[in-house]
Amino acid sequence: MRAFRWTALAGCIAVGGMAQAGDEGFGKKPSTPDLPGTPWKVHDGTRPQPKVVETGGAVSVKAPADAKVLFDGKNVDAWEIDGKPATWPVKDGILTAAPGTLTSKEKFGPVQVHIEWQIPADRKVDGQGGGNSGIFLMGLYEVQILQSHGNKTYPDGTAGALYGQTPPLVNATAPQGEWQSYDILFQPPKMEGGKVTEPAWITVMQNGVVLHHARKLIGPTQYRQLAKYPDNHPETGPIALQFHGDPINFRNIWVRTIGDYDQE
């Protein structure tokens, strides 16, 4: 049986973020594949923008007793970059994005994730530039991080989008410089004989507002391509944070493994 290689993680994040921009953008119809079941293309800038919902900013939740704390303001001991010690800086309890993909040492399957993020107020933001990052479940499925308060882009690339697949139900992004929160529930795909029998699904809340509810994913994140599931999909994978050239700030990152009530 051909093993799934985690080199896919680096490739997925690279094409999902740092690759050179093509013909996509707000108001533009790109030369990309059609998204199944919709009249839109991947990264379609003519797709309607999500309705804006003003919020009070981040919903900050202390890690429960059974949570795995990935960042508590002290250090990056739970993380690595390309198998080496993590080098993203920590100052005054804040983790700041720097070159390299930050990857959790521990791997997870079904999981609950809490993360808080901030786009610095002094950043010039335009479309996908200036305030861009992403959190990857299993290192494969991206929930987009972007300064989307007053900043338009293609909807499947806005804050809270399942990048390249599904825009958020609403735009719940707080003003630039304020802290934001994501609360995520993720279920990996079910496999049989090396093939996917049930797709992965995800629920996402931003600042206490539902962006996706048990939304099915069509495959791991891709840039300008139609996502599809690989053979022999892994059962677990890391949490990863993307560096897109922007010094995005993070705090209070924790996860909980989701199991049945009688499982340890």
How would you describe the overall organization of this protein?
This protein has a single domain, classed as Exo-inulinase, domain 1 (Jelly Rolls), CATH 2.60.120. It has one helix and 18 strands. It is 5% helix and 34% strand. The strands form four sheets. Strands 2, 5, 6, 8, 12, 15, 16 and 18 form an eight-stranded antiparallel β-sheet that branches. The chain has a six-stranded antiparallel β-sheet with strand order 4-3-7-17-9-10, covered by helices on one side. Strand 15 and strand 16 form a beta hairpin. The chain has 264 residues and is mainly beta. The relative contact order is 0.26. Keywords: Signal. Pfam families: 3keto-disac_hyd. InterPro entries: AL/BT2_dom. GO terms for molecular function: hydrolase activity. This is DUF1080 domain-containing protein.
